Amino acid sequence: MQWWIDIRRKVLVEGVSKRQVKAEYRIHTRTLEKILAHPKPPGYRMAQPRPKPMIGPFLGRIDEILRQDRELPKKQRHTAKRIFDRLKEEGYTGGYTQVKDAVRNARVRLKDVYIPLAHRPGEAQMDFGYALAKINGQLRKVAFFVMSLPYSDAVYVQAYEKICTEVFWDGHVRAFTFFDGVPCRISYDNERVMVAKVMKRHQRKLTDGFLQLQSHYLFKEHFCNVARGNEKGVVESMVRYTRSNFMVPVPEVRSFDELNRMLEERCREELGRKLRGKDGTKGQLLADERGRFIDLPVVPFESCRVRTSTASSLSLVRFDGNDYSVPVRYAHYETVVKGYIDRIVVCRGDECIAEHPRLWGKAGVHFNPVHYLALLERKPGGLDHARPLEDWKLPSCFRDLRSRLEADLDGEGTREYIKVLRLLEKHSPKELARAVEQGLRCGASSRDAIAQFLIPRPEWRCTRFNLDGHEHLRHVQVASADVADYNRLLGQEVGA
């Protein structure tokens, strides 16, 4: 580089002749002209591209194959070797290296270029992701809901068993509560819980579940083109960010509730961070952004999927591939089943007749043993073989009660024991166990006797005689007692 500078200075500043400089530095005229024309060496430049007689006729075919690959899954796209094999079948006679270089250059040339987008306040993006979590000692894959506000960069995350309509609902309800408002526009991809069918001209046939949520909160929707997640790139990045920062190392918790409390706390901590290129923290920007939100409705959306189901002859109703018990008196009747993310509620009219924790597998059964006691009272012989009672853990006092009843009531002891168990229809297991223990101590083991111990008895010091409804007794005068009267009565009895 130094000799380049010296030559330029001698000719252009000192006025030394070109012939003298060429002789001194032993360079060609074209080289000198290049030095004088460029402040620094321009490098090697070809006047025209080298001819490619072997691969040239096939470059368009390579571009065509790579463009078709865009519509296919990544694992089924062409490699350079596969393209080479196909080109040989079509008449290519060159080597593999030329094909490999051509494929590499074509992939760079065909890469997408994106326009930076402006993010207006009050708009949101939503997506789902997957991560591992250790819940109650079991390592499992969980789905997590992410809603991001690109303007303030605020984010809300919750974890769920799997992606379904009620999870989609619940995530929105919790996110809107966390942000204290409803974004006016939300961008989505084309998940089946939202989009029933993708149609031409960017039209979508939306699911009933999505329309119910939208009707309640009145936000506008925007759906990305198929396989174009970059159109909601902020939440795509947030899915990766929250997985890497909120769930590394793998969280170890006892339940989903504990995991979600932890995730929500991390979202609150994020509000204290400052966003690059903007003034103020994320929380301050979110406060400014709330002016563009839609107000939360007075009544929150009920995040439950409702289905009708007829109770079977086994007194079971089915929801989402799993069975749940109802009291036997509702067998063969039509019921309404409400599926929440954590529980199943079964109703008959306006009455809630059963509630169970939700099962997320398939072909599972959840029994409430109390639901079958009325039937067992009529068929006591099935007590020891009833499947709903197989894993029922009762205190040892119930075993002692059954032994006593079967010993005292020959042939009817089991039925009487079941009658005692039926008290669980109105009382908790803890209350009934306490009453059974009292009855065993007193030698009272029948159903009616044990029921007496379940009647609440107020402390006698707190009782007060009340004449409400007996107004005529207010005029009765009762004289004070005199011990002397009792002594006189005793004297009369002795004299007699």
TrEMBL record:
InterPro entries: IstA-like_C (IPR054353). Residues 296-365 form the Transposase for insertion sequence element IS21-like C-terminal domain. It holds the Pfam family Mu-transpos_C_2. It comes from the Bacteria. NCBIfam families: transpos_IS21. This is Transposase for insertion sequence element IS21-like C-terminal domain-containing protein.
